[in-house]
Amino acid sequence: MAHIDILVATTSGNTEYLADQLSDQLLAAGHTTTLHYEPDYQQLINSDPATWLCCVASHGAGEYADSMLDFAEQLSQHQPDLPLLRYAVIAVGDSNYDTFCAAGRDCDERLQKSGAECLVERLEIDMSIDDPEQKTSTWIELFIKAL
Ligand SMILES: Cc1cc2nc3c(=O)[nH]c(=O)nc-3n(C[C@H](O)[C@H](O)[C@H](O)COP(=O)(O)O)c2cc1C
Question: Whose CA is nearest to atom 2 of ligand 1?
Fold first, then answer.
């Protein structure tokens, strides 16, 4: 059994809804979760070793959605070493924007640079064409297997 911290970057709620569903799936598989709707950088960074599932919507011009702006700024500023962290990223966006999924890609890149272990390759959800539930169904199985 693993404990998974689910970090949520959302402005209008789509990603929060998705994160809630993923949490339910992880609980059903026998794991425990904490949902962080406004991730607290200090708290999360100090709870290493840990497993993070980052669900990150892009807003603005490829910026992180509001609920994770502060966390992203601190991550960028401090560039921590996180060798004991395991993580995976689900990037949420819309391909009508040039900066498609830019925040989720940035999150993945920063965590890779921190020395954290990526459990499953990043999933990108295009809200203009994808059904998020369907798109995550196979991916979450891979994530659960990797835990
Ligand atoms: C004002 C605005 C700006 C957006 N900017 C981007 C963007 O730069 N890149 C992208 O991939 N998606 C962008 N999107 C699409 C959102 O990521 C998409 O609507 C997503 O479902 C929002 O998730 P949320 O409801 O959790 O905030 C933008 C949406 C809005 C409304």
Answer: 59
